[in-house]
Amino acid sequence: MERPAVGDGRPLPLGLLRLVGHRPAEKDRVESLGRPKGRAMPTGWIFDIQRFSIHDGPGIRTTVFFKGCPLRCLWCGNPESIRPRPQLSYLREKCLGCGDCAGACPRTAIALGADHKASLDWSRCDHCGRCAVVCDAKALEMVGRNVGVAEVLAVVLRDRDYYAASGGGMTLSGGEPLAQPDFAEALLHAAKAESLHCCVETSGMAEWSVLKRLLGAVDLWLYDYKETDPHLHAKFTGFGNAPILANLHALHRADAKIVLRCPMIPEHNARQQHLDGIAALARQLPKLEGVELLPYYDLWRAKLTRFGLTSPLPESVKPPDRATVQSWHDYLRQRGVRLVASS
Ligand code: SF4
Ligand code: SF4
Q1: Cβ atoms within 10 A of the Cβ of 114, count?
Q2: Whose CA is nearest to atom 8 of ligand 2?
Q3: Which ligand 1 atom is nearest residue 137's CA?
């Protein structure tokens, strides 16, 4: 059977065939996704697609960053991921001082300053995006867009030769991919139809039914474990860790491949009690692929101004030095923990 072609005459890849309504594949798609015939393919909100990623699972990967997250981690490295819908970004250095944005804003959130740069009152902004439309300099832009599975998969498939050579594939990250389960499921199944290796990077903060739905389409779970003490977990992220741990144990019972990823934040969870908690958890999960420590970095702070955000994490929190990170690794190794780098 000959496949329909894209514009340049090449046959469409199988995963895309299933998304453009080619009949036999459409039937397969409906069956493989387990959704009622006639129901529209879901779309999702993302804020980035990063090709040639080497830190989000094995090999060379394309990482799809979902928008929206139920947690509020003090150290969130992607603060633009938290809001579930598009949000305004302002890069002051790109502003040409034309003033068009001020005229376009229905909420009088923008004024032209004495320095001939746009000045934003973020408290008035509702992220409607009208100013970004008129900003030819691209100083104002909206971050986050609604995309279809076919659109994302077309980007992901560009690098399939690299995936094949390196053992890579596609990773869903965020934000929290599990917060958009229909879109995540459809995208994963489309990628699996192309025989891609699929990772999901998650906080685990979701209903178990969501993780269960995705089980068959995920080759490796990159599962965050942020804090052992439930009260501190709530203080650091906004929620206790009970549902996250319950989902982790359920995944393990289901024989899912899991790497436990542990962000280590000085003055917060980077302390002996939490390292002991990680070691104890690893002992309870003997099929775990391993534990990966993610030492704190602070480059994300530069993004805050761009999005009109502030962070509750004190400026005194600095990235750990190499010797400190080594001491964490040594401590866990001495307690029998298998350490891995998921990249
Ligand atoms: S429209 Fe863009 S370039 Fe013009 S003042 Fe506003 S931010 Fe600056
Ligand atoms: S996105 Fe914000 S600043 Fe821009 S026009 Fe809308 S309300 Fe005004």
Answers
A1: 6
A2: 105
A3: 3
Model confidence at 10: pLDDT above 50: no
pLDDT at residue 6 tops 80: no
Q: Looking at residue 38, what is its pLDDT?
A: 56
CA 99 – ligand 2 centroid, Å: 13
Domains and CATH numbers, the chain: 43-82+145-334 (3.20.20.70), 87-143 (3.30.70.20)
Residue pointed to by tokens 């867009």: 145
Ligand nearest, relative to CA of residue 110:
2
ipTM for the predicted complex comes to: 0.96
Measured CA to CA, the distance from residue 281 to residue 303 in angstroms comes to 34
Beta partners for residue 50, in sequence order = 63
Question: pLDDT (tens digit, 9 = 90+) per residue, 34-69?
Answer: 344 556 789 999 999 999 999 999 999 999 999 999
Distance 112 CA to ligand 2 centre (A): 14
What would the pLDDT profile of 208-233 be if each residue is shown by its tens digit? 999 999 999 999 999 999 999 999 99
Question: Cα(135) to centroid of ligand 1, in Å?
Answer: 5
Task: Give how far Cα 53 sits from Cα of 134, 137, 197, Å.
Answer: 33, 29, 14
Cβ neighbours around 14 below 10 Å, total = 16
Q: Which two tokens stand for residue 117?
A: 């740069």
Give, in degrees to the nearest 5, the angle at Cα 323 between 320 and 324. 45
